[in-house]
Write a structure and sequence with these properties.
Layout (H helix, E strand, L loop, with lengths): L1 H17 L5 H21 L4 H33 L3 E4 L5 E8 L9 E9 L2 E10 L10
Antiparallel strand pairs: 1-2, 2-3, 3-4
Helix pairs in contact: 2-3
Amino acid sequence: MKIAQKMIVIGMAVALFATTACTQYHAQGAGGGALVGGAAGALLDKKNHWRGGVYGAGLGALLGATLTDVSMRGSQEAAQANQPVVYRSDQGNYTYRADPYYDQNASTRCKKVRERVYENDRLVKDQVKEVCEGQRYDRSY
């Protein structure tokens, strides 16, 4: 029993240190995933709600940060290449698709990307996202 507890603590520490290099978006995804996962874990574990909440929060944070990473990478690739980008899970039941979105009334220099997430060929999420590339201006002689 004590070995299992040590492994859990080590795993949580590794997950904590692995997320320190996250961007703001990764942190938001991990936070949302931890909140939902913690609540679900606490409700599902009948014997020990704390244990279920901790496990659910850890798994939810990891899943939330991963989904945010896929979303950021896919939208940036679609904006840079002006071509659709598709990611599929290994089992094939989850699909992420990012298409360049052309808006005639665009008032910014940012590019827009339409993101769609499918679960078992059913649309789960559909949003239009702006992807802005940073520009640097140097006042050098």
